[in-house]
Specification:
With 207 residues, this protein is of the alpha/beta class. Helix content is 56%, strand content 11%. It contains 8 helices and 5 strands; from the N terminus they run H-H-E-H-E-H-H-E-H-E-H-E-H. The longest helix has 31 residues. It is globular and about 80 Å long. It comes from Klenkia sesuvii.
Length: 207
């Protein structure tokens, strides 16, 4: 006698997409202080960049993509047309990065480039979801030593990077993806703050 095939027990389907969005929604609901800081950074940056300062940005992995996104917005534009500003994503200098890490070690990859490309009064935006990436933390130390304003964007704080930076935006989420998504929102807020300040200066000059 042939027995009927045994069906595996049915397991409930986890709403992965809904869970992901819920984490993002929760982080956004708590983002008012970081939005205010990002706006302030943008307004400060408008004065620095129009005065001839340069911005450098760095991060690893997804944070490297965010750093490049920021520099692209500054060299190109965010919304309205305006003059281009000097901004460099340090990870994009592949030959320099690989030569430095080969000769001097991983921790020097961003720091040595930052030392080469910046002068006192410039700005470094450094991103690390953990806040503990050794090469990013060392870049922050080098920035502070060289008179370069250092702004950090991390996950939960305090952490090694926020301890070194002049100012920091922290996203209190345990999920790397959520931190990165909020960082992108905050980078756009920074750019909006910069454009708003440029518009205000233009209007004041016209008056």
């Amino acid at each position: 006698m042939t027995r009927p095939a045994t069906r595996p027990a049915t397991r409930p389907v986890t709403p992965v997409g809904a869970e992901h969005v819920q984490h993002l929604t929760t982080a956004l609901a708590d983002s008012a202080p970081t939005v205010a800081t990002a706006t302030r950074w943008g307004r400060e940056l408008a004065g620095l960049l129009t005065g001839g300062a340069r911005l450098v940005a760095a991060g690893n992995g997804g944070s490297a993509a965010q750093a490049a996104h920021l520099t692209a917005e500054l060299v190109g534009r965010y919304r309205d047309d305006r003059r281009p500003f000097s901004a460099v994503a340090l990870h994009a200098e592949v030959s320099a990065l690989t030569a430095i890490t080969n000769d001097y070690g991983h921790d020097e990859g961003f720091a040595r480039q930052l030392e080469a490309h910046t002068r006192p009064g410039d700005v470094a935006v450094l991103l690390s979801t953990s806040g503990g990436s050794p090469n990013v933390v060392e870049a922050a130390r080098r920035a502070r030593a060289g008179g370069v304003t250092c702004w950090a964007m991390t996950g939960r704080g305090p952490n090694a990077l926020t301890e070194v930076a002049d100012d920091a935006l922290t996203v209190a989420s345990p999920f790397t993806a959520t931190v990165q998504e909020l960082h992108l929102v905050l980078l756009h807020v920074l750019c909006a703050g910069l454009d708003a300040e440029l518009d205000a200066r233009l209007l004041a000059g016209a008056e």
